[in-house]
Amino acid sequence: MKWFFIVNPNAGSRKGIRDWPRILKLIMESGISHEFALTTHRGHAIDLTLDCLKQGHRRIAVVGGDGTLNEVLNGIYQQNEIDKKEILIGMIPVGTGNDWCRMFNIPFDYKKALDVLIQEKTFVQDVGKVTHYHNDKAEERYFMNVAGMGYDALVNKKTNILKEKGRGGPLTYFYFVFASLFQYTFMEAVIEVDGESVFKGEIFSMNVGICKYNGGGMMQVPFAVPDDGLLDVTLIKKAPKYIVIRHVRKLYDGSLVNLPIVKTYRGKEIRIRSTGRIYLETDGESLGHTPFTFKILPLGIRTVIG
């Protein structure tokens, strides 16, 4: 069946536009029946997804990064005419982080990633839904990898500003992990998991995950299982900021959760309130602020994995 490729030319600091001719050549050589469209602005992949579904496409391949994948997912969930189970998502990673691909062993080599798409080994994973606020108006966003709050959202926002200017690279996020430390202010939050209050106090950072990786290979939610019908939470409480510098390696091997300042939770619904505004990102896309309500949509999307 035909694949519709949604290409983000700005992905990976404009690696998308540089490498798309080579990727297209590989697609044509493979004999895959296909159509494609290039995004021109933020949010465009949502509109392209809605359009290609109306045209009868049911297989959508992302040529981009986690943010483009997130937009495609939200395009799928903004419509109700087509059953989500009929739609299949694949990916050729061209982004900066490519963290969803890390979870499912999709190679960063274009030819090998295309081979994965051709083999069409499918996996049905959970989807997360978060209600947040933007200018005091409630908004909803779906995600299929990891959502970050607090310091994580600040680092992500700074990284995105550079990416939108066509700058940055795989080490940009890592750089801002350190560079943003002295700018960040701790925020007080109240956290509920499945209706039970589990934490009240100042937080440094927090992640809600369906998959394990974010930030270009950091494993901040190491216990996440993408089809268990649960959201995994990693909370870093207020601590001296030098602790982050001392234990940065633990962000990458998952051992961060063993530190006394870290708490982990698991549930189907997560609610977060705060005295000030705590900001949010999902799958690398910078969004709004508290209060947040996270819910799990079990087995919400079909994907092609390695």
How would you portray this structure in words?
The chain is α+β, with helices and mostly antiparallel strands. It folds into two domains: 3-120, Probable inorganic polyphosphate/atp-NAD kinase, domain 1 (Rossmann fold, 3-Layer(aba) Sandwich); 128-298, Tumour Suppressor Smad4 (Sandwich), CATH 2.60.200. Helix content is 29%, strand content 38%. It contains nine helices and 16 strands. It has helices spanning 11-30, 44-54, 66-77, 99-103, 110-119, 151-164, 172-179, 242-246, 250-253, and strands spanning 3-7, 34-38, 59-64, 88-93, 122-134, 137-143, 146-150, 187-193, 196-209, 213-214, 218-219, 231-237, 262-267, 269-274, 279-282, 285-304. The strands form two sheets. A six-stranded antiparallel beta barrel has the order 7-9-8-14-16-15. A two-stranded antiparallel ribbon has the order 10-11. A hairpin with a 3-residue loop joins strand 10 and strand 11. Helix 6 crosses helix 7. It is globular, with a radius of gyration of 19 Å. The chain starts with a strand and ends with a strand.
